[in-house]
Amino acid sequence: MLARSFLMATERRANPLLLVLVFLLIGAGCGGGSGEADDGLPTQDAALVQSGAEAYAANCASCHGPDLRGTTQGPSMLSAIYEPDHHADIAFLLAAQRGVSAHHWRFGDMPAVAAVTAEDVAAIVALVRETQRLEGFEPYPP
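Predicted structure:
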């Protein structure tokens, strides 16, 4: 009797969890209308991307290339290294504010970019993420 009571109680507790799991699986499989491309990157706000393009051209393009594909002075922002699960959006802000010690590339350290505001970086990140969404990622190492 005690075992039966335990099983019934366990079943009652498991049912809500099972329902949550089923809804999560259904939601993950649908994906429609979420504004996300197949690679999982969300579509960025067009005005923010445009603002980001201007800030990027003024502050980043000389090293990271006008097309975000890098130069002899800095890496491509389309590298798989810059996927959101490896370099989250906040990493771009910290890099601009503090600079970065070379750790993935042989371009040398990146200096801080004093002229770039947090709002500029948010717009630059929108540009980078939208370009990554549209063009995909380049393999690392190149």
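Summary: Residues 1-30 form one domain.
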